[in-house]
Structure formats: structure tokens, C-alpha cells
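Practice record 12: protein with zinc ion.
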Amino acid sequence: MKKIFYTSFFIFSLIACKNQKTAAQGYQGQGKSAVVSTLSKPVQKQWKGIWSFDNESVFFSNDFESGRLNGITSDGNNHYTALITAENTPINVSPWYAFKVWSNTPKTITIKMTYQDSRSRYYPKISTDGVNFTPLDSANFTGINKGTGSFGIKAVPEIVEISVNISQKPIFITAQELYGSTRVKNWIDSLATKPFISTYEIGRSREKRAVNLMEVSNGKHKKAVMVISRQHPPEVTGFLAMKSFIETLCGDSPKAQKFRDKYDLFVVPLMNPDGVDNGNWRHNMGGIDLNRDWQNFNQPETQSVRDFLIKKESGGYEFVFGADFHSTWDDIYYPIDSTITGEKGKIVFDWINNITNKLPQKHTNVKPSTTIKPTMVSRNYFYVNHGMPAIVFELGDNTPRDFLKEKGKVAAEELMDLLEGQD
Ligand SMILES: [Zn+2]
């Protein structure tokens, strides 16, 4: 099962690459982030429940963690149209969807996926248990109004039609694998069975969900690494690399034990639990992109990490490295330019080089940022306010899952080596 899962992702990735002529150079990165207000704005909460069609014989549901289906209509002849909309606008192109479908008798149906003013960024994944996912067979996928560009949003179709076999056992159709707050908490708790790992809330989200922190510490020192992930709900591939990164740092290898003999590790794996559980495209339930709020701190999720860092620093902690995991069109590193960070930032660039040397099979672009004020994004806040060499670590939406895991592991090993060499 696992084998098929990884292999399918690999094949899918190959297909994706073949269709994108400039993919060899990879994603060139986004431009400078505009300064925007992060005061709360209204968001539309989706109706949650079950739709039934054809005399209660075909059913659709969005009523589960991370579910998103804003509307579904029957067009007759086993054809349906799904409407996927955002929590509010303006918003970037990351139309998340996740729903279940089943029927009283086995049949094949076609679903037309529409995304309001957006386009089809995420290739559909299918699951029968909500835990193990495989990409939809490409024979059952048709792009409509195909993109005219060669990369990113311009290269994907506006609408897609998918066909699926349904029966009494519901199947999940989702934009990426499901990692809602319950599944993430289970992962944290499974790691926290180790004696040197504890977990606690550092705050609450707007809808009062826990912002959980994982503390890896044997209580002997005051130097630490800070890691966060999932400010943006659909960015599951960044989360998966982060998960492997953390598991390696918490592992039983002599290298990891040596690392923990000198350093503590603080992790907030799910920065935006409301956004994730509501199936949001990007924002929290204040309608705000959290990764623009690290200057004014209008949102409770960012406030909780700010307060945590200030408390730890006033308790004598020195932060030696910070990483924020995200996903975008392809793997890319966003460090802070060396003209700003100088000697202090050298570890970040050494780290990127070392990971690249260990993983030559996939090219990863590096795009250093030359603007760090106003801080706005976590990486800048980490550096400006806490002197942390810091990076935004981006993984591709379609990066093969076995490679994500390998990259997270190698990234952890290389960081441990560099920190060891710093003493
Ligand atoms: Zn992001």
C-alpha cells in the first residue's frame, strides 16, 4: 500500500514536470510581499453537512476536519458540479477542497470542480480511510480551459472534471493529504511519549483551538532551535518535510542524542489550527494571512508565538536557528540575504549548500530576501527581534512524498552537523 502510494506520487510528479517546460530551472520565487493591514476581516464560514441526490441514493459531505465543499449540484446522468470558494478575498490561488462521496449502489460519477475566480492548483487525492491517500488516476482527470503558461498558476486548468467509482463506503476526494488538528495532535502526543519531549498550549486561536508547542529538552541548557509550520492551511507538503525534520532531531541516532545534549528544540507544528480545520485556502478565522502579521501582531496565533519567544529569551535563552515550513509551486529556499545577516547568517547558506550536495537529484532554487522591515513574516521577526539565523523552507505541492521525507531527514542531519561544528 505504502509502496504504491509513493510510486504514484513519483509518477505523477514526472508527468507534472513533463508538462512544465521550465520546470528544470524550478520555481523562481515570489516577489516582495506587499505591506497589508492585518486587522481582522469578516470570513464566510461554510455550511457543513450532507447533500443527498437521486432520491437519497448519492451523498456528498464536507462535515469533517479540514472539509471544504461550498456547494454541489446534480446536472443529471451521474454528473455533478462542485463549487469551491474561499473564506474571504482577496486571497492567493490555493483553492483547498476536501469532501466525501458515497452511494447506495456502486456507480461511476463525474464531478466538475469549479473554483470561483481561482484555478485548479491541487491535483485530486483519493482515500478510503482519510489517512492513506493516492493521486487520482490521470485517466480519470480532464482539464478544461487549460493554462497558457508554462509554470505555476498559468499552467493549470481553470476547471477540472474527474470521474470516480463510488459505493456504500465513502471515499475522500481532497486537495492534499488530510492533516487536521486532531491528526497533528496525535503525532505530537506520540512523540511526547519520549522522556525528553513535552507538549503544552502557548495560546488559543480565534476559535479557541489550542496553539500547541512541542518542547524537546533535557533541561540542561539555554540554546534552542525554533520551528513553525502550517501558517497556510493547504501547505501539507511543507508540514510533511517538517515532520520528518523533527522526527530526525528527536531520533535515537548518536548525532541526535549529541544535538540534544547541547540544544533545545521548540516546535509549533500547526500555527493556524482554525484555518486548517475549517478547510481555509490561506487565512485564519480573522480573515488574515498570518505570515503578514509578524510586525503588528493583530492575530492571537502570531501573538502566542511572539509571547513565547519573548518569555524564553527573557529567561536566558539564545535562539541559534529558526525555520518556517511552507509549500508552493516547487521546492525553494528563502533565506535572508547575506549582505544583511553577514557572519551570523552563514550557517543558513552552509546548510542549504550541504543539503543540496546530499540531494543532487532535485534542484532547489535559492532566493535570498533583501528586505526585512517591516518584519511582517516570521523569518524576519525571528532574525530582527531575536537574532535568529532563519529561513523559509518551501516544498513543492507535487514534490514526491518519499523525497519530502528524505529532505526533512537530510536537513535535520546537516543542521546538527553545522551546530556541532559551531561550538
Ligand atoms: Zn505558505
